[in-house]
Amino acid sequence: MLLCVGGGIAAYKALELVRRLRDAGARVQVAMTEGAQQFVTPLSFQALSGLPVRTSLWDSAAEQSMGHIELARWADHIVIAPATADLIARLAGGHADDLVSTLCLASAAPLTVCPAMNHHMWLHPATQANIDLLRQRGAQVVGPEDGPLAEGESGPGRLAQVPQIVAALAHPDSAVPSVPSSDSRLRGVRLVISAGPTYEDLDPVRYIGNRSSGKMGFALAQAAAARGAQVVLVAGPVQLPTPAGVERINVRSAAQMRQAVMDALPADIYIGAAAVSDYTPKVVCPQKMKKTAQTTGMSLELVRTPDILAEVAQQTGALKLVVGFAAETHDVATYARGKLVNKRLDLIIANRVGVAGGGFESDDNAATAYWADGEREFASMSKAQLAGQLLDLISQRLDA
Ligand code: C5P
């Protein structure tokens, strides 16, 4: 087994991989990129593999004992762990500008690639195109996993667990699929997601709004795109970056959100994650409203906004699943189930707001999903993790 170690923080996990591969009976020769040596020393790999580690194409002593071409021929299997975005790009491009890329290019052995990187790098269309190219050429891709990353963020980018890599090498069919392709049920499915608040203008400088951050809807859009769905994200006024591969339509008011959602249909799934304002001013003042010395108070006349979610749910024809959110301060189950029935939804995700550890503005969320004949609790976790779990449930409900 030729283990090529790339330059990422997950390089330390490759030490454990050497040990487990040897336990499984493999002879392991390690080759490291220059970047990998910044994270772990060759000496550590040498101690665990029992063989001198190869670090350079230009090492005359190593070339004398077994040249890189011989080493490339020697390998029965090449595993790259961790495979960084750069290494994947260089393999896809057929580069041979360092030892690891040259070994891979010079070898006819089966290749297993275990990516690990920041989730934005993994989800970037460039990396996705490169990994797809490697797959098309027959490489086995194991991982990455979804979860907390070294830099404090969360998302698909963690190196697959060492036992799973070992299992995938022993039985290629048991490979842990990489996150984007793991949920083939959503591949090619069209999803329209609303997210964020709406702002209802009173005059050119003031509006009525709410405290929605948009994070939950954006996390859902990101996770759905990563699973291969075609995602249209109708976003209220929030400052969040657009997730890779997502078509974003910015709106401000409930009326604009309704129009953008209707224009984005037909779709297979609609997820109403936006906190749509229930009321809007009856008249919008064209000029700034001025306070006067005489009046001590003022009244605003408000009118109801269209219920976008209920209207979408009535279009029973094309949509396979309509999912709503319910943010409640009390009696969560009762109100959520009421909305499920009244708005004719397939699924509603309810969470308590106004409590610590979740809801509006928070990075974390705990929720309960309700459908006609079932429910499921989700403990407090990051909105990115919750998005992944909710999409798993949504995929299951598609088939229900
Ligand atoms: O009735 P309530 O506003 O609590 O329902 C929340 C759900 O309904 C959310 O999914 C929200 O996106 C959706 N909604 C909507 N249009 C409105 C009000 C709420 O789509 N005018």
UniProtKB/TrEMBL annotation:
Residues 2-167 form the Flavoprotein domain. CTP binds at residues 278, 288, 306-309, 325, 339, 343. Keywords: Decarboxylase, Flavoprotein, FMN, Ligase, Lyase, Magnesium, Metal-binding, Multifunctional enzyme. Its cofactor is Mg(2+); FMN. GO terms for biological process: coenzyme A biosynthetic process; pantothenate catabolic process. InterPro entries: CoaB-like_sf, CoaBC, DNA/pantothenate-metab_flavo_C, Flavin_trans-like, Flavoprotein. Its EC number is 4.1.1.36, 6.3.2.5. GO terms for molecular function: FMN binding; metal ion binding; phosphopantothenate--cysteine ligase activity; phosphopantothenoylcysteine decarboxylase activity. It catalyses: N-[(R)-4-phosphopantothenoyl]-L-cysteine + H(+) = (R)-4'-phosphopantetheine + CO2; (R)-4'-phosphopantothenate + L-cysteine + CTP = N-[(R)-4-phosphopantothenoyl]-L-cysteine + CMP + diphosphate + H(+). It comes from the Bacteria. Binds 1 FMN per subunit. Residues 191-400 are annotated as: Phosphopantothenate--cysteine ligase. Residues 186-396 form the DNA/pantothenate metabolism flavoprotein C-terminal domain. GO terms for cellular component: phosphopantothenoylcysteine decarboxylase complex. Transmembrane segments: none annotated. Pathway: Cofactor biosynthesis; coenzyme A biosynthesis; CoA from (R)-pantothenate: step 2/5; Cofactor biosynthesis; coenzyme A biosynthesis; CoA from (R)-pantothenate: step 3/5. PANTHER family: HOMO-OLIGOMERIC FLAVIN CONTAINING CYS DECARBOXYLASE FAMILY, PHOSPHOPANTOTHENOYLCYSTEINE DECARBOXYLASE. In the C-terminal section; belongs to the PPC synthetase family. In the N-terminal section; belongs to the HFCD (homo-oligomeric flavin containing Cys decarboxylase) superfamily. Catalyzes two steps in the biosynthesis of coenzyme A. In the first step cysteine is conjugated to 4'-phosphopantothenate to form 4-phosphopantothenoylcysteine, in the latter compound is decarboxylated to form 4'-phosphopantotheine. Catalyzes two sequential steps in the biosynthesis of coenzyme A. In the first step cysteine is conjugated to 4'-phosphopantothenate to form 4-phosphopantothenoylcysteine. In the second step the latter compound is decarboxylated to form 4'-phosphopantotheine. This is Coenzyme A biosynthesis bifunctional protein CoaBC. It comes from Stenotrophomonas koreensis. The gene is coaBC.
